[in-house]
UniProtKB/TrEMBL annotation:
It is found in: Mitochondrion inner membrane. The keyword Membrane applies. It catalyses: a 2-methoxy-6-(all-trans-polyprenyl)benzene-1,4-diol + S-adenosyl-L-methionine = a 5-methoxy-2-methyl-3-(all-trans-polyprenyl)benzene-1,4-diol + S-adenosyl-L-homocysteine + H(+). Keywords: Membrane, Methyltransferase, Mitochondrion, Mitochondrion inner membrane, S-adenosyl-L-methionine, Transferase, Ubiquinone biosynthesis. It comes from Mycoemilia scoparia. It is an enzyme of class 2 (transferase). One of its GO terms (cellular component) is extrinsic component of mitochondrial inner membrane. The keyword S-adenosyl-L-methionine applies. Belongs to the class I-like SAM-binding methyltransferase superfamily. MenG/UbiE family. The gene is COQ5. Its main location: mitochondrion. Methyltransferase required for the conversion of 2-polyprenyl-6-methoxy-1,4-benzoquinol (DDMQH2) to 2-polyprenyl-3-methyl-6-methoxy-1,4-benzoquinol (DMQH2). It is a peripheral membrane protein. This is 2-methoxy-6-polyprenyl-1,4-benzoquinol methylase, mitochondrial. Its EC number is 2.1.1.201.
Length: 223
């Protein structure tokens, strides 16, 4: 469904997300709401291919055990799994009980925070677990900044996405919820101010729009 809804563009957004992250060798990443590991995969691949680094690791946390099981199957035969560079844990982004304070270099959350009851709690928790100097990065659907493109995007969202959901996944309601939850999520500037409220320092506005703001990357540093 992700591919059908975005014509595969979500893959490019995730690639851009990792390039913006540009993690140095030896990075310890916590990927929250990591699902089946799209971000973990790209991160480890980037470290292997670009940094020639085999010392970075990722711990993937998700609230849904079935998602984690799919992730484990996906990586079961990978070198990263055999090298113990990838681990999985069940957890709620709002209270990461198994993660120590000041323990990770990077914290990522991609298309996950919108589903959480209290996004501010999620950001506060990210601040707690990051080491000083560590970086919070979020990839999420956001608000389109061009009225003309926004109008077309609204038609696509409300008329076509629920139909695709019905056709491909036999589930109109979940995709109706998806488009509504995107509209309810704070806009770029409001979300950036929530990141600053948690204590993070942002560079410039603290965000970068992707595809006219259909999605955005937000980022902040724990100073
Ligand atoms: C759309 S998927 C995104 C998965 C992955 N990050 C990606 O970009 O492909 C959203 C994920 O958020 C997880 N999730 C929802 N609420 C959560 C919470 N409170 N804590 C942790 N994970 C959560 C879901 O189980 C799901 O795996």
């Amino acid at each position: 469904m992700n591919d059908a809804m975005s014509a595969g563009i979500h893959r490019l957004w995730k690639d851009t997300f990792i390039r913006r992250m540009s993690p140095p060798p030896g990075t310890k990443l916590l990927d929250v709401a990591g699902g089946t590991g799209d971000i973990a995969y790209r991160f480890l691949n980037f470290q292997d291919q670009i940094n020639d680094d085999s010392t970075s690791s990722v711990h993937l946390v998700d609230i849904n055990p079935q998602m984690l099981e799919q992730g484990k199957i996906r990586f079961a035969n990978s070198q990263w799994n055999l090298d113990n560079r990838l681990s999985f844990g069940i957890g709620n982004a709002e209270k990461l009980e198994t993660i120590e304070s000041n323990s990770v270099d990077f914290y990522t959350i991609a298309f996950g925070i919108r589903n959480c009851t209290n996004p501010q709690k999620v950001i506060d928790e990210a601040y707690r677990v990051l080491k000083p100097g560590g970086r919070f990065m979020c990839l999420e659907f956001s608000k389109v900044d061009n009225p003309l493109i926004g109008a077309a995007y609204d038609i696509f969202s409300f008329k076509i996405i629920p139909e695709l959901g019905q056709l491909i996944a036999n589930d109109r309601e979940s995709y109706q919820y998806l488009v509504e939850s995107i509209r309810q999520f704070p806009d770029q500037k409001t979300f950036a101010s929530m990141i600053r409220k948690a204590g993070f320092a942002t560079v410039g506005d603290g965000y970068e729009n992707l595809t006219f703001g259909v999605a955005a990357i937000h980022s902040g540093y724990k100073v």
